[in-house]
Amino acid sequence: MARLIDTVAVVTGGGRGIGREIALQQAREGARVAVLARTATEIEETVSLIQGEGGQAIALPTDVTDQGAVESAFRRIATELGPVDTLVNNHGSFQAFGPVWECDPLVWWRDVEINFRGTFHTCRAVSPTMLARGKGRIVNLVGGGTGNSFPHGSGYASSKAAIMRLTECLNDTTIAHSVRAFAVDPGLVRSAMTEMQLSSEAGKTYLPGIQQLFDDGVDIDPSRAALLIRDIAAGRFDVLAGRLLRGVDDRDALEEEMYDVVAADGRALRFSAIEQQKL
């Protein structure tokens, strides 16, 4: 039996790649899906695929960096589909490659703005209704540089680390009302974003490791993250709210280990135990 019947899911960046697969998986489990992105033709195609499988979805062209546009989109979602049960922030930008002094400041900041500010806007828009209903799950996608240095991807890495911390803060302020936030790292997926890294001169110069990883066979299928997020939406991993889950995780093994992860305070942005004692 489909586990998400009579629920509403919102997927940003849902016009292609990982986002499209997430939207499809949510719909296959019975959710009514709102698909958001800036490019109307792409999200309309995602909606058409969902409808072709018998699902219900709407396409809402939205710039997540525009607060007013985000709030307007969520009002439409509430009217046309109902209150949101699951929000998946999949939108992302990574166009500033190289050391800080080589990056165009506007391009660097635009990556941060789309990734981090966009996530803030959608979380802010959806939280009040979730809190009023006493239920809801928010999934924020993170990635390279979240928990480690990424010297030639500093804008992207900084934004993803910030999203991880935002996820923790949000979860800590909403979980008492049964609203949970999660971070998900989909892994290295061949997408429009990575293709640009592979083909651009700046990408070839500063991110040669991406091509090497693909040459070595590291190419995570987007369905891995989509199936994980489907399970999150169904409540399977509620114990791990506020923490980082990965597309490469074995979901059965993760379920068995999740209480140990919480006991060890793992999968979170933390100083070491020794450093914590000094603070």
Report what the structure shows.
The protein has 279 residues and is α/β, with parallel strands linked by helices. It has a single domain, classed as Rossmann fold (3-Layer(aba) Sandwich). The protein has 11 helices and 7 strands. It has helices at 17-28, 40-52, 67-80, 105-133, 154-174, 192-199, 201-206, 208-215, 222-233, 251-263, 273-278, and strands at 8-12, 32-37, 57-61, 86-89, 136-141, 179-185, 244-246. Helix 1 (17-28) packs parallel to helix 2 and helix 3 (67-80) runs parallel beside helix 4 (105-133). The termini are far apart. The model has no long low-confidence stretch (mean pLDDT 92).
Instruction: Name the overall outline.
Output: globular
Q: CATH H level: which superfamily? A: NAD(P)-binding Rossmann-like Domain
CATH architecture: 3-Layer(aba) Sandwich
Q: What is the strand arrangement across the widest sheet?
A: 3-2-1-4-5-6-7
Supply the CATH class.
Alpha Beta
| Low-pLDDT stretches | none
Helix content: 40-55%
Question: Quick recap of the structure?
Answer:
The protein is 51% helix and 13% strand.
List the helices and strands and how they pair.
Blueprint: E1 8-12, H1 17-28, E2 32-37, H2 40-52, E3 57-61, H3 67-80, E4 86-89, H4 105-133, E5 136-141, H5 154-174, E6 179-185, H6 192-199, H7 201-206, H8 208-215, H9 222-233, E7 244-246, H10 251-263, H11 273-278
Parallel strand pairs: 1-2, 1-4, 2-3, 4-5, 5-6, 6-7
Helix pairs in contact: 1-2, 1-9, 3-4, 4-5
Task: Looking at this protein, list some descriptive labels.
alpha/beta; Rossmann fold; seven-stranded parallel β-sheet; 11 helices; oxidoreductase
